[in-house]
């Protein structure tokens, strides 16, 4: 079947009360229109045309390379939106599937079933029976059961408002018939809007769907939260069926783009975002957010960590309360403890920084121990400089490493040192004032003051 998918995404989205175009609002971490565009690609559409208007540049920029665009200059209803793509439709011979950019829950398999059932009809749409039809167009059928019209809520009589079959806003039409029917519809109300729903007046096949949840059209932020919840539930279920233990699916916020291997355990209240991968056997504890990062096998990410654009090698222990900023690379068997921050820093196998440390712009070898309170002083207010710590080095607690600086293989830096010059391999680096002990000084001083 020659297929063109038309995605309506020009609407004002007035009820979102925002500068951001509605279809770019994120449901479960991704802009709503992405789910719709993904479904269109999965159906094997030859052409994907997105009707843009409100926030046109932003929506076009977001979908660039994935679709062609038609611009609706004034938002005068869903019928007018389809007319904005008339040129594109008239150059196409086949089926046009119309989807709304604000319906992120529709599954490709549902669309496939609809298209199979509707392919013989020149004009078809999906409907569904719902518990609360508020806000949707009602499907009105005649005594013989055929569709007479779709009535928008604001134009409906009390009787019509009680109707529980609604229009989902999804249509499948022959391209030529669609254009012919569009020409035949009149504008309504003071704003002279064109309702796409009017194309069914000359007869249409209504495909009644079962799952009302899939057809949630997001008009406000309450519905956006509802849509996110449904998506997160679906994602949690998928991972659980794949062998991931999600202790509390209701507080598992995982993007559809995330990969998780089996035998991973996720504690409550965890966010996994973007291009993230969690390896087999790892555990992620509560309050952690991981974005665009790889956590390899058998790692333990303890409570309240933030990890972005980083790589955590196998068998590592991170946190609690650790911060891996972009470019942190741990080669494996590492320990990054509480209140440790890393940025553009790599660490060889078996190295540790267990407490209260900042490692930025650093290259750290294997089996290095970074003592509590170590700071790489990487910034002079103008430029960033690199610290190199070679294999087997021991950095004592409360050390400042003023970059650029290198600590050679196997060297030891004494606690409390401020290192401004390179430390050669195997050397002790120490910068400390000599300790003096003055015997009996305290009691003598107290006596002089006249205090006990
Ligand atoms: C529409 C349907 C209603 C259906 C409901 C399902 C019409 C007249 N009404 O109502 O029967 O039950 O969807 O969710 O079709 N858009 C444009 N340009 C416009 C107006 C809208 O591109 O001028 C786009 C919007 O961006 C959105 C979609 O069309 O993606 C639906 O618009 P919306 O205003 O949400 O229509 P509803 O009132 O929900
Ligand atoms: Ca809507």
Automatic annotation (TrEMBL):
CC per GO annotation: cytoplasm; membrane
Annotated residues for binding of acetyl-CoA: 378-379, 397, 415, 432
Domain MobA-like NTP transferase residue range list: 5-128
Residues engaged in binding Mg(2+): 102, 219
Any one GO biological process: peptidoglycan biosynthetic process
The keyword Phosphoprotein is annotated on this UniProt entry: no
Localisation: Cytoplasm
Binding site for UDP-N-acetyl-alpha-D-glucosamine: 8-11, 22, 72, 77-78, 137, 152, 167, 219, 325, 343, 358, 369
Region ranges (Pyrophosphorylase): 1-221
The Mannose-1-phosphate guanyltransferase C-terminal domain, residue ranges: 257-340
GO molecular function, one term: magnesium ion binding
Coiled coil spans: none
Keyword set, alphabetical order: Acyltransferase, Cell shape, Cell wall biogenesis/degradation, Cytoplasm, Magnesium, Metal-binding, Multifunctional enzyme, Nucleotidyltransferase, Peptidoglycan synthesis, Repeat, Transferase
E.C. code: 2.7.7.23, 2.3.1.157
Transmembrane segments: none
Pathway: Nucleotide-sugar biosynthesis; UDP-N-acetyl-alpha-D-glucosamine biosynthesis; N-acetyl-alpha-D-glucosamine 1-phosphate from alpha-D-glucosamine 6-phosphate (route II): step 2/2; Nucleotide-sugar biosynthesis; UDP-N-acetyl-alpha-D-glucosamine biosynthesis; UDP-N-acetyl-alpha-D-glucosamine from N-acetyl-alpha-D-glucosamine 1-phosphate: step 1/1; Bacterial outer membrane biogenesis; LPS lipid A biosynthesis
Active-site residues, Swiss-Prot/TrEMBL: 355
Enzyme class: transferase
Cofactor: Mg(2+)
Family: In the C-terminal section; belongs to the transferase hexapeptide repeat family. In the N-terminal section; belongs to the N-acetylglucosamine-1-phosphate uridyltransferase family.
NCBIfam families: glmU (TIGR01173), PRK14354.1 (NF010934)
Protein name: Bifunctional protein GlmU
Organism listed in the record: Seleniivibrio woodruffii
